[in-house]
Amino acid sequence: MRRDRRESDVATAAVSGAPEAMSGLENPAVTPGVADDSGTLGTPLDADGTMPASNSALLSLRSVTKTYPGTPPLTVLNHVNLEIRPGEDVAVVGPSGSGKTTMLSIMGTLDQPTSGQVWIDSVDVSSLNEAARARLRAETIGFVFQQFFLLPTLTALDNVAEGMLYRGIRRHERRTRAMEALERVGLAKRAHHRPGELSGGEQQRVAIARAIAGGPRVLFADEPTGALDQTAGHRVVDYLQSIAADGTTVVVITHDQGLAARFSRRVSLLDGTVVDNTVSSTSLVDPRLNLIPETPAGYVGVAAPDSTMGGSR
Q1: For 3-23, what is each residue's pLDDT tens digit?
Q2: For residues 231 and 263, is the Cβ–Cβ distance under 8 A?
């Protein structure tokens, strides 16, 4: 129960972008000389004063281990090494309990490793204090979760715009970007509908729009199709791949081998260890060519149900 509540708190903090929402979820650690007391991002250097060897990677995990205390202690990630470069679309796949979601939380700076290093955009995350990590998340990272975390009283447009509330962007600009993001996921005509008036597939696309509206460099999606039917799930993956084709790094966490096979790179995780790291031949195909056209009712290959609360799209 405690862990479920923590995961919910982490997800809420991730989609809200509010720095204070992370209070109590992290243990700040600051390394002098890399980030000052104000949390300003400096130029990260290795111990010998040189830039790290992996500075071409957007995201780098270096011997990352995560252990939860107990009797005996539970090691969820075990010396994981992984590099993800700008513009890649990657699926991290593994069975339940393999450490996928923990790895996403650490990559997204929502949690910290017990040992090892996490580098994002050539910055050693462990060198940042809590405020700087919150700013890094807000400016660099977007999140999509299996549960949509949409505010039921707000329209799709306002839900997307609220995701940029803590970015210091004026209201008019937030709404402009929000509409542009909804257009990218094919929901411009549903912008003024509330979540209760949208199908599950549409709600997940609103969540994707919220994640990309601020222009993140990397988008993390944790089981984004888990609550959707097959047709809606395929469409969500189409949009994620289209976003990657436009230059945003996309990392999807999934247990579904079939879904993982659609991504250009597949990282297999088992018992907290990377056991496979495969590049797929499908990376030669521009995913923007594979978007499934919608019928006038917004459904694919099925008749629209009578209720707006019908099947996922």
Answers
A1: 444 455 555 555 555 544 444
A2: no
